[in-house]
Amino acid sequence: MSERREITHELLAEALRSSADSPLIVPTDEQRAVIEAPFGPSLVVAGAGSGKTQTMVQRIVWLIARHGVDPASILGLTFTRKAAAELRDRVDRAVGRLREAGLVGGTDVDLPEVATYNAFANRLFTENALVVGQEPDALLLDDAGAFTLMRGIVLRSDDDRLAALDSSVSTIVRGALDLARGMRENGVAPDDLDGVADAFDGFLELPGRVVKGRPTPYRDVIDAQDRMSALRPFARLAASYEAEKRRRGVIEFADQVAAAAAVVERAPAVAEEVRRRAAHVILDEYQDTSVGQTGLLSSLFRGHSIMAVGDPKQSIYGWRGASAGNMRRFPSDFGAPDGPVPPRLTLSVSWRNDVAVLDAANTIAAGIERPGGDGPVDEPLPELRPRSGAGPGEVRATFTQSLDEEAEAIAGWFADAFAGRASDDRPSGAILFRVRRLMPLFADALAARGVPCRIVGLGGLMWLPEIVDLTSLLRVASDPTAGSELIRLLVGSRFALGPADVAALHTLARRLAALDWRMRRYSASVRTAARASVASDDDEALGDALEYVAAASDDDPLLSGISATARTRLVEAAVLVDDVRSRIGAPLVELVEFAIARSRLDLEAAANPSRSRGRTDLDAFVDAVVGFQAAQPNAGLGALLDWLDLVADDDALARSTDEPEPGTVQLMTVHGAKGLEWDLVAVPRCVAGEFPASSREGTGWVRKGVLPYPLRADAADLPRFALDGYSTQKEVVEDLKRLKDEVAERQAGEERRLAYVAITRARSRLLLTGSYWVPSRKRPGAPSPYLDELRDRGLVGAAPERVADEPPSADGVERVQWPREPFRDGGAAVRALADAVERHRPAVATRAAHSAEDARTAAGGAVSSWRAELDLLLAERASARDPSGVDLPHRIAASHFKDLVTDPERTADERRRPMPQRPYRQTRLGTMFHTWVEHHFGGGGGGELLDGGLLDVDPDDRALLGLDAGTAADTAALAKLRAAFERTAWASRKPVEVERSIEVPLGGHTLVCKLDAVFERADGVFEVVDWKTGRAPDGEDAAWERQLQLALYTLAYSRYRGVDARRISAVLVYVAESGEVREFRFDRVSDEAELRELLARASERVSAHVRQG
């Protein structure tokens, strides 16, 4: 440049125009103050839709063009990858246009760095990992991976205190994981948590009250001490979790920040280099930063040229670690010790919302107090002001009598807005929910009005009926005690059991629960002990009842209360569950797809005209399973189901990455909608107690598995509670009450900010709805106080009067059709189509047969048929000679391992052309004996009932299945085996495991081992026992084969239990009908290296075999 021009905002605006026809965007006075802010710390309070991204881009451009700042020395940080990509793209395009206009020099490589907060921390950590004694190539653990890792720790834990928590596995996993992350974020050690628990123990030692002359502690103190005692086992889980992460070489997002902070603390030179490279820093969405992120950034950039941009009114992520007090603390966190107070700038003109929407947002925001404080913000937050030329906008409130009417009102509102407009000319729209549970109801209402819609996010999908049916089926297959899910399947549209049959099934379950494996009643002492036990077997008995119905004869007296139609359907249900259960060892995606096809959910979704997106939603669910399996390839069905339980109720899966779709109504949570905007927005369930939601946090952190506020780094911004200084329990109770009140106030502020975010998502039209009555509730709801505030301002009308004092049902009794009709239109069209198919089935089959015959004749008759057979034979030979066509199976059952390594060629041939094998009587007898032993030890394997007469098998299939032999002989042989077993010492011992299936990765394959029983000896040695029936083979080969099987069991249980293989003693126990019992043990069995070598040799032999043809 021969002559440097004076850089002005007008000049930059001209250079940044994409074309001569595009508008000239000149900053407002408010924006200029931000853009021209002096070098040094500054805080920008930017309201919703106030153009903060554009202003940040202009700030960067101003630094480069006006002050000659090197673009590469500017660092911009934001939260999501999507936001970072958008900011980076806009900055890159702006800098490129400045270069084209000749206003700046440099090359395309010289660009500002834009990243997420965690990516910045991770880079700082990986470049300097050795400084803190860690490896730089640590793998990043995502949410699914973290959940799976913690779940494994919980399941392996032998801490008896976990059982006393009376919580599900997924609940414990979630609590332990949240606590571990909070500890990491705030630098809390397990001993710190023990100290808090000790303080609550001490409260019980304080003087209580006197009742009838006896010292009695306060119930509130007892309950608080009980809840806080859970900190100790949770702290142990957190410590084990951190140790396991270190062992595996994995880290989480919170670890990145903490590790980066440790680097800065231990290596001042590294911090200085970061400051040198990032001479100017801009922090986006600063209100959502955590105390850990703030601490890292403060240690790096205190007194630096740093600008933080955020909005306290949109601080809605406190539950995931964000600290809204960061905005208030910015001057102390980033101001130079002896420097001026950082300026506080504002962006208060909304470039998004029309006037009426802004009025509603400002009305709700007026009640927002300083987050975490006990009064208003230090300086009033600015109200949003409309842009010049803003439209009038529209805000409506509709309060109906029933929930169905509310859904129909929203659907009608969108239908009217879309009516008469081409699909590409329709506005964008969204329904934003406080909770996901009701999304399917509103989606159905939209579909009934012909309004395209889509539920966004896996959490919303989890509430859809077809997804609930699918996960219920998977849960029942995985867990025989899943009684609620089994009822869901049985009363659904597939099996449609009525109330009388469901009640009869429950009666059968109770009867079976009182019977032992011999179908005799338990003794009175056993029944008394069962009633007094901690766990209930009602659900398990329900699953047993289903299996019993499937296996019982038609004249079984126990089935007298179940209708014939229900029996047929129950048999079908049992077969369905058993089929899915048999696939549990398959990869998760394959298992889920099989469950969908086997249950016909895909056909049901396709046939239901009121669920036009049913098949798409199933595909979206499968995609989520694909992602889970990709992240956790070794996770099983139980881990997937627990993860899905968490997803269904957790908004921690961050904001939505889905852009608005004109012409389609998107359904999502308010949390997921942060950062998005639509032309039309509806917010349902504006009902007192729902939105705003009533506080369910009670006394806040005085709960199981919650990091205590006094230990958090932002404790000054949180409700306070002292851990000492009390002289009586009454003082503790009074302080707990004050804490509860402050927590409720804090929750009310969170709800109000959430409402503000929901309202400001609407550009022009906003609909707020609610209803008096909801099914299953006996008391009516009332309009949300937010609606009252808007009414007082004249923005919406008053709600209509409630027309009834009772739920809308006849005679106070709700009347419903049972079974529920799955199709909204009564299914007339679907049934008519099904009838037509049935009528034409014979004719179609006849025509198909004739067509096939005609085709063969036209093709040359027998000659063509011979040619086709020759082609098939040649193709088979070519396949046989192809080494890539046959290999060792990926999954290898322990019972087949011996055949595979001793005769791999035969295994390859059998895989090439598998043939069914007729079961031997001894195999059937062995299965019966194993089932009896399992029940003898109290196992719940749910195997076949022992009475062969109860097996409901087609007569034509009995020979193939080996069931045509006389069952009387089998029963007599089983009695001999039982008698022989009961004479052994094993019969009186108590196993620690029964029928335990374990999968072990080995040499690129997966060994599937099913351990019959495991016993723990007094010396700490685990005895793994495999029961065999019949005579034991003799000879050296037999001995080697026996030790090989025991080697597999030793390896499997060593991996599963996490103990040294030397602490495991495996034994084969042969029980013969003659009464003879023989045991085989070995001082040494093949170790893991030897087993790997056997697999490798077998693979080599298979390859050579197939090459030879």
UniProtKB/TrEMBL annotation:
Enzyme Commission number(s) of this protein: 5.6.2.4
GO cellular component: cytosol; DNA helicase complex
Keyword Repressor: no
The reaction(s) this protein catalyses: Couples ATP hydrolysis with the unwinding of duplex DNA by translocating in the 3'-5' direction; ATP + H2O = ADP + phosphate + H(+)
Cross-referenced InterPro entries: DExx_box_DNA_helicase_dom_sf, DNA_helicase_UvrD-like_C, DNA_helicase_UvrD/REP, P-loop_NTPase, PDDEXK-like_dom_sf, PDDEXK_AddAB-type, UvrD-like_ATP-bd
Source species, domain of life: Bacteria
MF (Gene Ontology): 3'-5' DNA helicase activity; ATP binding; DNA binding; exonuclease activity
Residue ranges annotated for the UvrD-like helicase C-terminal domain, each copy included: 355-675
All residue ranges annotated as the UvrD-like helicase ATP-binding domain in the record: 25-354
UniProt entry tagged with the keyword Membrane: no
Binding site for ATP: 46-53
Family of the protein in this entry: Belongs to the helicase family. UvrD subfamily.
Protein name per UniProt: DNA 3'-5' helicase
Species assigned in the record: Pseudoclavibacter chungangensis
